[in-house]
Specification:
alpha+beta, 2 domains, elongated
Amino acid sequence: MDHLKDMLSVWVYQKGLPFTGVLMDSGYATKTVMLHREQMQKTYSCPLKTNRRVDDSAGTIPYQRVDSLTWTQAQRKQGKPIKIRGFPKDHKVK
């Protein structure tokens, strides 16, 4: 995954390629890659694998699989903030 991080750094810092967003496959949805995108102030979109452990309860219930979350109609359209297990304590993604 570091090769993708390095490749994006080259595009941004050496080649000056102007872009604001990155679409990624779920295989690139790792903590390192996702946090690097945010550090570069780039928007990214990627699906999470169904077995990723997440929390949408603000810590009131244990982490659960993404595919076991419940979604309202509005959340299905707009997303909802979740914490991915292993990410920094107060770091949420939508």
